[in-house]
Amino acid sequence: MIQILSEKEIIRRIKRQEPFGAVIGSKAFSIRIDRYVPAICTAIHTGHNVSVGIADRLLLDDDERTCEETSYGGEMLASFPVVLQGLDSRYHYDLNRSPDECIHGEAQGKQVWVNPLTQKERKAALSRHKSYYRVLHALLTQLEKRFSRCIIYDLNAYAYMDLAADAPLFNIGSHFIDMELYKPVLSHLKRRLRAVALPNIVTRLAFDEVFSGNGYQASFIHEHHSQSLCIPLGIKKVYMDETTGEPYPLILETVIESLKQAISYNAAYFSRKFSKKRIQRSSFFAEESSHLIKRIDAALYRVAKGVDTLRYINPVNLAHERKRFFARQGNYTPQFHYRQLKIDPFEFRKKLYAIPVDTIQDVSIRQLYRSTIDMLGQKIDLLTTIGSDHFLYNSLRFHGEPSETDIELARFFIAAPPVADEESQKPLSAQKCVDAFREAEKDYGFDFRVELSSRIVARAMVSSGRRKVLINRDAHFTTTEIQALIHHELGVHMVTTMNAGQQSLKVFKLGLPGNTETQEGLAILSEYLSGNLTLSRLKSLAHRVMAVHMMVRNYGFPRTYKTLTEDFGLSNEDAFNLTVRVYRGGGFTKDSLYLRGLRKALQLHRSGTDLSPLFIGKTSIAFLDTLKEMQARNVVSSPLHFPKSLKMEVHPQPIIDYLLSSLL
Question: Is the pTM of this model over 0.85?
Answer without folding.
Answer: yes
